[in-house]
Amino acid sequence: MLMNVLTPHINAAVQDYYRQFLLEPPLVYPYFVHITGSERLNGFRGFRLSITLDVTPVVGPHISVGEDRLTFEISAGPEVKLVHYTHLKSYPLPPHWQYIVKKPAR
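-> C-alpha coordinates emitted (106 positions)
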Protein backbone atom coordinates (compact mmCIF):
# COMPACT_ATOMS: atom_id res chain seq x y z
CA MET A 1 0.00 0.00 0.00
CA LEU A 2 2.86 2.37 0.83
CA MET A 3 4.39 1.96 -2.64
CA ASN A 4 0.96 2.53 -4.26
CA VAL A 5 0.75 5.89 -2.47
CA LEU A 6 4.39 6.95 -2.97
CA THR A 7 5.20 5.75 -6.51
CA PRO A 8 3.62 8.75 -8.33
CA HIS A 9 5.45 11.17 -5.99
CA ILE A 10 8.75 9.31 -6.40
CA ASN A 11 8.48 9.34 -10.18
CA ALA A 12 7.54 13.03 -10.28
CA ALA A 13 10.57 13.96 -8.15
CA VAL A 14 12.96 11.76 -10.15
CA GLN A 15 11.68 13.02 -13.50
CA ASP A 16 11.98 16.61 -12.32
CA TYR A 17 15.64 16.05 -11.33
CA TYR A 18 16.69 14.13 -14.46
CA ARG A 19 14.86 16.51 -16.84
CA GLN A 20 18.04 18.62 -16.97
CA PHE A 21 20.21 15.64 -17.94
CA LEU A 22 18.11 13.28 -20.07
CA LEU A 23 15.73 13.64 -23.00
CA GLU A 24 13.72 10.61 -21.87
CA PRO A 25 12.31 10.68 -18.32
CA PRO A 26 13.38 7.76 -16.14
CA LEU A 27 10.97 5.73 -14.03
CA VAL A 28 11.31 4.11 -10.64
CA TYR A 29 9.59 0.76 -10.21
CA PRO A 30 8.49 -0.27 -6.70
CA TYR A 31 11.03 -3.11 -6.65
CA PHE A 32 13.82 -0.51 -7.14
CA VAL A 33 12.83 1.33 -3.93
CA HIS A 34 14.58 0.59 -0.62
CA ILE A 35 13.25 2.12 2.57
CA THR A 36 16.26 3.34 4.55
CA GLY A 37 14.47 5.12 7.38
CA SER A 38 11.11 6.07 8.81
CA GLU A 39 9.97 7.92 11.89
CA ARG A 40 6.96 9.59 13.47
CA LEU A 41 7.61 13.31 13.53
CA ASN A 42 5.30 14.27 16.37
CA GLY A 43 5.61 11.48 18.87
CA PHE A 44 4.25 8.06 19.69
CA ARG A 45 0.65 8.70 18.67
CA GLY A 46 1.37 11.09 15.83
CA PHE A 47 0.43 10.42 12.27
CA ARG A 48 2.89 12.77 10.57
CA LEU A 49 5.59 10.49 9.22
CA SER A 50 8.97 10.90 7.59
CA ILE A 51 10.22 8.21 5.23
CA THR A 52 13.59 8.08 3.48
CA LEU A 53 14.00 6.00 0.35
CA ASP A 54 16.92 5.01 -1.84
CA VAL A 55 15.74 4.59 -5.43
CA THR A 56 17.23 3.43 -8.73
CA PRO A 57 15.70 5.24 -11.72
CA VAL A 58 15.77 3.39 -15.06
CA VAL A 59 15.16 4.06 -18.74
CA GLY A 60 14.15 1.66 -21.49
CA PRO A 61 14.59 -2.01 -20.64
CA HIS A 62 15.53 -1.28 -16.99
CA ILE A 63 18.84 0.47 -17.67
CA SER A 64 19.87 2.16 -14.41
CA VAL A 65 20.74 5.84 -14.74
CA GLY A 66 21.67 6.50 -11.12
CA GLU A 67 20.87 6.25 -7.44
CA ASP A 68 18.99 8.86 -5.48
CA ARG A 69 17.78 9.40 -1.90
CA LEU A 70 14.38 10.98 -1.28
CA THR A 71 12.77 11.99 1.99
CA PHE A 72 9.02 12.50 2.14
CA GLU A 73 6.70 13.71 4.89
CA ILE A 74 3.35 11.93 4.90
CA SER A 75 0.31 13.08 6.84
CA ALA A 76 -3.39 12.32 6.91
CA GLY A 77 -5.18 12.40 3.63
CA PRO A 78 -2.65 11.07 2.60
CA GLU A 79 -0.75 14.26 1.98
CA VAL A 80 2.75 13.59 0.63
CA LYS A 81 5.48 16.25 0.49
CA LEU A 82 9.03 15.85 -0.80
CA VAL A 83 11.34 17.48 1.75
CA HIS A 84 14.78 16.38 0.53
CA TYR A 85 16.30 15.00 -2.69
CA THR A 86 19.90 13.87 -2.97
CA HIS A 87 21.51 12.49 -6.12
CA LEU A 88 23.93 9.82 -4.90
CA LYS A 89 25.46 8.31 -8.01
CA SER A 90 25.26 8.40 -11.81
CA TYR A 91 25.65 5.43 -14.12
CA PRO A 92 26.84 5.74 -17.72
CA LEU A 93 24.33 4.67 -20.32
CA PRO A 94 25.29 2.07 -22.93
CA PRO A 95 26.34 3.42 -26.34
CA HIS A 96 22.96 2.74 -27.97
CA TRP A 97 21.26 4.91 -25.28
CA GLN A 98 23.66 7.86 -25.42
CA TYR A 99 21.27 9.78 -27.68
CA ILE A 100 19.06 10.62 -24.66
CA VAL A 101 21.87 12.35 -22.72
CA LYS A 102 21.60 16.18 -22.67
CA LYS A 103 24.54 16.60 -20.31
CA PRO A 104 26.15 14.30 -17.71
CA ALA A 105 24.58 14.25 -14.23
CA ARG A 106 26.77 15.59 -11.50
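Residues 2-18 form the longest helix (17 residues).
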